[in-house]
Every structure is written in C-alpha cells, then in structure tokens.
Design brief:
The chain has helices at 3-29, 33-51, 64-86, 94-114, 120-145, 152-179, 186-209, 212-215, 229-249, 259-266, 270-280, 286-303, 312-319, 324-335, 339-349. With 350 residues, it is mainly α.
Length: 350
C-alpha cells in the first residue's frame, strides 16, 4: 500500500469514527449542552481530519478552504466543550458564537486572500497562535475546575479527553508555525493522520466506557448502589459531622476553602468525602455544594428586617462569596430572582 493510500485510510477512519461519535452523542444526549458541544467538536475534528496537512503552501484548493476554516474555528468549540465538561452551570451566550465566527472567518480569509497574497507565514502564525491561546484556556479551565468535580468515574476520563486533544492540537499548531510554507512530503502527513486516528479511537473508546450520566451533566442520573448497613451508619456519622461544620462553624465562609481542607477537618481521605457529597447529598460539584450553603445564609440575611439597610455585597461577602457577580449568578440560579428582588419580595410579604 502506498503512503498516499495509507494516509487516506487513516483520514477516512478518523472521519468515520468522529461522525459516529457525533451521531451517538446527539442521539443519546441531544438535550445536554456538553454533549451537543461534544458533537460539534467531533464534527469540527472530522473537518480537520479531512483537510489537515503538515506544512501549508500559499495555494489552497477552493473546496479545502471552508474545511480548514471550520477546523480552525473548532478550537473555540473545544474550549467551550471543556468548560461544559467541568462547569455544570455553563450556558452558551451569543458572544460565544461570535468568537467562533470571527476565528473561522479569519482562517477562511487567510486561506483565500492573505496566504495567496504572499503572506503565508503571517497567516499561518496568527491562526495557530489563536489555536494555542484557546488550548491554553481549555487546559487552565481543566486545572481550575477538576478538583471541584465530585463524580469520581468521570474525572479521569474528562482530563484524558482534554489532555489528549490539547496535546495533539498544540503540537500540530507548533508544527504549522515552524513549517509554514514548507512541503514536508507524504511521510509526515501519513504519520500525522495515523496519530490522529489513534487519538480519536482511544477517545471514542474512553467515552463509550463511561456512563453518560457520569460524563455529561444534565443527563439522567445513574442510581447509586445501596451501601451495606455498617457502611451506611459510618457514612451517616460523617455526613452529620460535615453538616455540623457547615451549620455551626460555617466553614463555607473560609476563603479558598477546598475539598482537601474539608476532608482534613473530618479526618477522612479526600476521595471518600467526594463520594459522600456526591452519592449521599446529591451534589456533582463541590463549589455548588458550598454555594448552596452560602446562598441559604444570604437568603436569611436578605429576609431579615433588621438587615434591610445592609448592602447586598456585604451580605454576599459575609456568606463567603468573593465578589458580587458570582453571587448574583449563583443566587438567581437557585432562587430564580436576583438578591435585590428577593429582598423586595420578602419585605412586601411581611
């Protein structure tokens, strides 16, 4: 088999796997934002598999340019997909679509106008610096959000998906910058296609091995296994101790409180506390667990006539929030109204 034929087989395998993955996600989890973003990311990756070449010349075939543009814009989808995986409260906004459109449009203009005009290196460098920037944002999101994830079965898979995609995308972006305008030959493109096919296959396998209710927030929850009576009694004692820390010491007020600190106070391993909060109290994210306690304190303060003149930001800071914006968003997500509206409703009802 020639190198060109081998490369074609690898590309076709990647495209087929990615299309199957996108169809599966849309079929099983079409109402879950993270799954829809995952399907969009798979489709954009299929465009990448069909169009990517190591080294870029100044001449791009007409049908190739839209695929390259979609492939470049897919890095924005990757960033949003990463955020959705680790942030159960993420809501897509119009400006997210605008960013995707701008990145895609710039890539398309680079293919049909900037590069053919003799500025191949400029076009390729700018596009791939944008790619590296969004990969950095995705990795930062993973590092920042991963410790708060309470669902043990999905934590490792999520990190693997993000790291595998980021490593492949980052290395390719660096190669494009270094080799812009060069013709590296069939061997490099065949190797790259083979690596991509392997990465896609491993990610697809990892996704299929994990229950959708664990991987995607908002999917139907899997029923937890029933504990043994001895385990149930021990767990209940720990839950009682945890809730006392929340109610009596209001430990959620502490700045930068982490699940590791809380586990240390309870003298139990961190993984066990994750399991307790997730399986017994029903929380999927540690920050949501903390914020719900903070919001309950804020609700009591806002409804208290004696604190009618206390500024909302003071109540938010006293409850453990670090700024007003996150407090307002979290409060409205729980109650359906802003803190100011909640206070006014309570005053009118008194």
């Amino acid at each position: 088999m020639t190198l060109a034929a081998t490369e074609l087989v690898f590309r076709a395998a990647s495209v087929a796997l990615l299309l199957m993955l996108a169809a599966s996600l849309l079929s099983d989890f079409r109402n879950v934002p993270a799954a829809r973003l995952g399907a969009a990311f798979a489709l954009g990756s299929a465009a990448h598999a069909a169009s990517y070449s190591v080294g870029v010349s100044s001449l791009v075939m007409g049908w190739h340019a839209p695929l390259i543009a979609l492939s470049t814009g897919n890095i924005v989808v990757f960033w949003l997909f990463t955020r959705a995986l680790f942030d159960d409260e993420l809501r897509l906004r119009p400006w997210h679509g605008l960013i995707w459109a701008l990145v895609t449009a710039f890539s398309f203009v680079g293919c049909v106008w900037i590069a053919p005009g003799g500025n191949v290196r400029f076009s390729v460098t700018v596009v791939n610096l944008i790619v590296l920037g969004f990969i950095a944002l995705a990795v930062w999101q993973t590092i920042a959000s991963w410790p708060a994830d309470l669902v043990e079965r999905r934590r490792r898979v999520r990190v693997f998906i993000v790291c595998a995609a980021a490593l492949y995308g980052g290395l390719n972006a660096l190669l494009q910058i270094v080799l812009a305008g060069s013709d590296v030959g069939d061997i490099a493109n065949t190797i790259n296609s083979g690596v991509l096919a392997a990465v896609v296959a491993v990610i697809a396998y990892a996704v299929m091995r994990v229950d959708g209710a664990d991987l995607f927030p908002g999917a139907a929850e899997a029923a937890p296994s029933e504990p043994l009576p001895a385990e149930d009694a021990a767990d209940q004692r720990l839950i009682d101790a945890l809730l006392r820390l929340m109610a009596d010491e209001r430990i959620y007020r502490q700045e930068n409180i982490t699940i590791g600190v809380l586990a240390g106070r309870l003298k139990i391993p961190e993984y066990r506390l994750r399991r307790l909060i997730n399986q017994r109290l029903g929380y999927r994210n540690f920050n949501v667990f903390l914020n719900n306690h903070r919001i309950e304190e804020a609700k009591a303060a806002l409804a208290d006539p004696a604190q009618a003149e206390v500024p909302v930001i003071t109540i938010a800071m006293d409850a453990g929030f670090q700024s007003l914006g996150p407090f307002n968003r979290a409060f409205k997500a729980v109650t359906g109204v802003t803190p100011t509206e909640y206070r006014r409703l309570k005053v009118n009802a008194a």
